[in-house]
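In keeping with the milestone schedule agreed at the kick-off meeting, the structural modelling team has produced records for the first pair of proteins. Each record is given below as a sequence line and a structure-token line. The laboratory manager (R.T.) confirmed that both were archived under the project's standard naming scheme.
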Amino acid sequence: MDRLSSTDAGFYYAESENAPLHVGSVAVFEGPAPSYGDLVRLLLSKLPQVPRYRQRVREVPLNLGRPLWVDDPHFQILYHVRHTALPKPGGQEQLRNLAGRVLGQRLDMAKPLWEVWLVEGLEDDRWAIISKVHHCMVDGVAGTDLMQVMFDLDPNAEHPAPRDWSPQRTPSGLAMAAGAVAETMTAPLRQLTSLPGPEAVSHGAKGLVSSARAAAASLPTLARQALTPLARTLTGPIGPHRRWAWSDAELAEIKAARAGLGGTVNDVVLTAITRGFRDLLQGRGALGGDTVVRTMVPISVRREDERGSLNNQVTAVFVDLPVGEPDPVARLASIRRQMDEYKKTMQAVDARSIIAMGDYMAPTLLALGVRAAASAGQLWCQAVTTNVPGPRVPLYVLGRRMVSAHPYVPIGGGTRISIGIFSYLTSMTFGINADFDAFPDLDVLSDGIRRGLDELVGLASAQPAAASR
């Protein structure tokens, strides 16, 4: 029986009516659009490579164990692949409105947790694919690898004919409960005894020492953040509706800003986002000189040999975006300093071991804890910002070239806005997802990110090349 990891189970349990936790994207292609039947047959031919897409989540009775992945005996691909079209003129505004409605709707938790929408009617003879997949199935980095399931590197690629498929028998409730109890009792023991005796003790001791050192090193940062004035207007209750926007950039201009001002690409990106939040708060009359917007930045700890695996291997850091600072160079320096500190801390602690600690937690407590945390609201941060590097080579679906892709990152737990960043070929896009009622001024943030990049590029062009890391 294939059981959800503790991290994936957390995402599953945190799902609620007002907080759907799927990730998604909108990919735009050169025309003409394929037929609905051709897309369905393509996906059917690819599904054997990702058996999870024919599986659904089944909870263990009484929450005696983490939920299981089981084959859906009633799987019907026509339910998961939808077909629609844009009203004229089929421009970006119409596409954003449609995608915002589609991506804002919950997935059916009783079925395999994904959808694909074929969208016709875009201007310039283009079409799009809107895709949704629940966060408990895949994280952003693994999701980039899984794009190869639907996408081809060769426009003339051939695809095998769909194969017949028979679901495996779903285990009974009694069998699930018995298996969960046995695993709960034996899994921690197996992990503790996976290494030879003295080596296991030494390994555990070293892990505790490194964790203690990392915690001690983090205390000054946590103390500073606890006293930092936050932009409280950005957090609060979340409703069922979403606003979604995006802002585009070229990788060349981001790299030019990095070369002229220093830091990493990620530092420059976070600085541009800081300008967007500064403009937003200034427009609301809520900007103070020492105000920050604290954003959670997920970090993948997936090893290279785990690429493509269907589970989440992520941790997170919290970065204070200095929106009250008027000088963009000083904003970049502040972000760069924080990221450097986090890199040192991450080197001192095994983040993968921290993630694995969830496997020792009683499954019932895991479910209750995640749900309680989600319903209590987010007091520590105001936003989520995640950067997923995409391919630098063209991708194709049924011979049609993808020209752009825009990411969708869920919101929840009182954090009412998220920014997903995705790069493809020579471009980068910022997909901004927000609570509908809380962000009627979402375009101010989107336009502000663009202005932030422009000001950094302008400042960089006037300076000699800085030493980059």
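The second protein of the pair:
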Amino acid sequence: MAGTRAPGFVFPKPNKKRTSGADDVDCGDARAHNASKKSMLSPPALGLGTCCMDPAAALANARHEFGEHGGVNMSIEASATFTVMEPETMRRMFAGELGPDRDFFIYSRHFNPTVLNLSRRMAALEGTEAAYCTASGMSAISSVLLQLCSSGGHVVASRSLYGGTHALLTHFLPRACNITTTFVDIKDLDTVKNAMVQGKTKVLFTESISNPTLTVANIPELSRLAHDKGVTLVVDNTFAPMVLSPARLGADVVVHSISKFISGGADIIAGAVCGPAKLVNSMMDLHQGSLMLLGPTMNPKVAFELSERIPHLGLRMKEHCKRALVFATRLKKAGMKVVYPGLEDHPDHELLKSMANEDYGYGGLMCIDMETEERANKLMHQLQNYAQFGFVAVSLGYYETLMSCSGSSTSSELNAEEKAFAGISPGLVRMSIGYVGTLDQKWAQLEKALNCQTQLIQY
């Protein structure tokens, strides 16, 4: 593309700082500089491995950023703009000759050192060349779709998606961008294949474990089908960080709402795009980049907070998943209609088992189908207000259990027909299982609510 461009997104960054006397730039052979950039982008340099590699090991191998004065935690770079020692350097930065790979920064809507460090960790977590952290999960999803699709483009998407994503694909993108979507049963591979039109379909979009129905996507097969037709597979892995590694299973791009499990505190809104460096570079292009021009910028103070939480994500996920399996198993024995892919009778149990990273379980969410919204609300009332088992609230990944009736909350953007097509029962209670207290203590609270409302389990 003619004209100026954004400096490329390359990491890990060399372990050197610019001197105070002059901008430390190499004006020599550009070919040597480009070769250096290429080597930094290779998976071995990022500490990545095979599809079976433990994501915790990849995180441990990622570069550790120390503080400016030697602190064990990195410093927060709160500046919006950055200085250079020589005016000529700024021209070279805007021309794309110098960038964050060599410790040159322009403006924090573009790249910020603290946000870059979090992005590096997200890339290590998901096993991708690069990542870019954004202000929300929806900004990550919308930016990827707008980068990959132009006016007249087509998306094939799972029929069971988070309500906000469904609304983006159903209403906003057709109206504002002339981008249309065909929704399919992601489990029906023949239907998925036939829905993709070679040359027109640009993206196949799915959630690794769907919200709220907990359907598991066959990522390796979806990858094969998409690539056969020149389509990019984008997977939202918000429900299954550490549990699944979609990029190692064949996905091209992985998106996250970091607000959920990765944050763990229900106090931060954030997102991430994880994928090839070429894609991230294109999203930062000064003329055509969706991230650069739409500006869903992450605050560096938020990036610092999140960087401090990722190291114990694996420990938290194991406990979320362990308790979800125990509660799902016991509730099923008690006669409840439970949906959880860790149960052997779940239709996707063996599929998830074949794809999951070892020792991380089957996810931290489960559902109880109470069949009607009235029954669902009565159950949640007892669980929160009588037994203190959890909170009636949307979102997930919190250390306390959160529960909501999906049809009237996080999937309310879907009309009745769309909910039926997605398999969302009016009484489906989605539970994000927390890990506070002891397991026996929380189970006793759950039993207390059920015993108080025995009529709720009489079908």
